Amino acid sequence: MIKLLLAVASLLFSHQAPPAQPPADGITEKEAIEFARLIEQGLLDGKPEAFDSVIDSEAIVEESTRGLELTSRERAAFGRGVTKGSALGKSFDSKSGSSFRFLRQRLVDGKRQLVFRHFRTEGFNYQEFRLGRKPTGEIRIVDVFSHLNGEWTTAQGRRMALSIVADDPTRRGKLQRRDVDLAEHFEAIQKLNLVALNGNPAEAQAIYDSLPDTLKQEKIVQMLKLQAARRLGPAEFVKAEEEFNRRLPGDASKDMIGMYAHYHKGEYERSIKCIDSVDSSIGGDPLLEFFRGNAYLKMGKLDQAKRAGQKATREVPYILEPRALLVSISLKEKGHTETLALLLAIERDFGVVFENLESNKEYAEFVKSNEYRDWMKSRASK
Question: Structure pTM?
Fold first, then answer.
C-alpha cells in the first residue's frame, strides 16, 4: 500500500526571492522529468518493467528497517517481500485499463519527487515517487506515497519489519514506545485495513477503538477509520472527519476520501471543497474539473458543469469520462445536435459503439429527435 501527500513549506517573501537550494541528491529537474517520461511511455506501451525495474528495493529495505537489527536471514526474507510487493507495474500499465500519467516533479526537503495520476473507471489516485541516485549514478525510486492511502511504502514496510522483531525481548527493549505499539498491534492494523475497505464497517470501528492512543495518531489508522466511517453513514463520517482534523490538523489527505463520500451523500458543496483541497495538495490537475463538473451537474448548475467538463475534455482528451459528462449535460439541455456530435466523437476517439439507446431512460428525448432518426438511417444504409 502506498501513499502520497506532502506538507508545503510556507515561504516569507522579501523584495527578492531567496536563491534556490540545490537538491540534496544532486538530481536536476531535467533529469527528473526525463526519468518520469521514460516510466510513463513504458507503461503506455504496456511494459510493467518500465516501473518495476526502477524501484530501489534495497533503499526501501534500508529505510524500513533502520535501527531494528534484523539478522541477515530476516533481512533477506524481508527484502524478498519488498521486491514482490513493489512490483506494481502491471496495475499501472495500459493493458490493465489504467491511465497512468506524469503530472509534475517537485523538490521537497531537498528530494526530487514525481507526481503521477492513476485513473481507472472504478476510481483514481495520485502516486508520488521519491527519487534517489545509486552510487553508480542511476536514478531510482526509493519510496512511494499514495494520496488515497495516506502512507509511504517505507512506513508500511517498517510496521512489517517491527512484527519480525516483536517477539525478541532484547531487540524489543530497544524500541521507542510508538514502535512497540506498532509491533504489538501489527495484525490489528492489517485487519483494520482489510475490514475498512472490504468488510463490515462496524467491525472496523471496533478494531479502531481497541488500538492505543499512540496508534490513533497514525495517519494510516485515521485514513482507514475514514474509509470505514463513510459506509456507516453521514453522522459517523462527520465524526471521523472531526477526529482526523483534531489528531492531524492541517492534513488534506482525508479529502481524497471526502470528495467521494460527500458526493455520494449528496453534499456537493463539501465535495467540491475536498476536490479543491486535493487539487492544491498535488499542485493542480485538470482532470479534477471532471469531478467538479459531476457535482455541479447534480446541483443543477449546468453552465458550470459544462465549463468544467469542457476544460477536462480539452486538457485530458485521452480519458473518456469527461466526454460522458458532457453527453449527460447535453441530454439535460435537450441539445440534440450537440449530443449527436459528442456521441460521434466518442465513437471515433474511443471505439465505443452506441447501441440500444432506446432502452436507456436518460436518452428518451434524444431518441425521439430528428438527429437520432437520421443517425440511425445513415447507419442502416452502410
Answer: 0.85
